[in-house]
Amino acid sequence: MRAVQYRTIGGEPEVVDVPTPEPGPGQVRLRVTAAGLCHSDAFVMGLSAEQFTYGLPLTLGHEGAGVVDALGDGATGVEVGEPVAVYGPWGCGVCHACAQGAENYCPRAAELGIQPPGLGGPGALAEYLIVDDVRHLVPLGDLDPVATVSLTDAGLTPYHAVVSSLGALPAGSTAVVIGAGGLGHVGIQILRAITGATVIALDISEEKLKLAREVGAHRALLSDVSAVAEIRKLTGGVGAQVVFDFVGAPPTLEIARKSVALNGVIQIVGIGGGLLSTGFFSTPMGASVRVPYWGTRSELMEVLDLARAGAIHVEVERYGLDQAPEAYRKLHDGEVRGRAVVVPYS
Length: 346
Description:
The protein is an alpha/beta fold. It has 2 domains: 2-152 and 295-343, Alpha-Beta Complex (Quinone Oxidoreductase, Chain A, domain 1); 156-290, Rossmann fold (3-Layer(aba) Sandwich), CATH 3.40.50. The chain is 24% helix and 24% strand. It has 10 helices and 16 strands. It has helices at residues 39-45, 96-99, 145-148, 156-163, 184-194, 206-214, 227-234, 250-259, 297-308, 324-332; strands spanning 2-6, 14-17, 28-36, 58-59, 63-71, 83-86, 128-131, 137-139, 174-178, 198-203, 219-222, 240-245, 260-268, 288-290, 316-320, 339-343. Helix 10 links the parallel strand 15 and strand 16. The longest helix is centred in the last third of the chain and has 12 residues, at 297-308. It starts with a strand and ends with a strand. 48% of the residues are buried.
């Protein structure tokens, strides 16, 4: 089968031929119908040899959807031919967190060497994907896999961040979304769908600010030195009850720090390398800072339900498997509007 692999530290991803995997006991093989590209992939491929811990070659793709193609011995609960989405953050399955479906916060995953697809384990940017357990599959039903696959991360991650701050987002509140790209444009829609907040979007790109307005942002501002003053003005000097930073770079974290309200929340979702100093004389009194990671299995089901209801969607650019390296270059250069999705069989 063909797969997109990161093979050399500092190199670009390559389309290669690899053996088609066979499912082991309890495993499920999917014929991949769609795989999403993410800035997290670029982050992984940007690590130095000393920092890189995933092993090479690495088949990329932690956003996956497919059709059940084969079942390993003892695998039950799905049928061959069933369309499914893959829940990406795999855990041990038996700890307290995993028992609640929060495998994204499994405390044993690292010590047990559990590697999610595309983040250590073979990912979805291939013609076939092995999923370790049926519990990591969520039925897609009649949802279009190409339009839906990015919701497994670009929808689940902002949904988890928003849900964890729901108490701070009643009617009359303000939410700031920094970065209106792949995750941010979905986060705006989620905020509009499940909260009463006024949504202010920030980005350095006029094209992405246009997208932010199209998907429901009440205001869209350039993410520059004037952003904090404008947010304060729009909120009557109070600031935003929650700031969702989908970039996570030093300049955006500084905007978050200066624009969050007393007793507000800063959610650092992006992995842009910034660190936020908090405490007296730094963040406002009562403000909290969270670093959410992905989301729970039940939250993924809820995200897909929002998609079925037409409340959220992902702006998608479609590519063939051979075009994946080009798509990664465009993603790196900020030229993707929304999310890039690879379709292995096109």
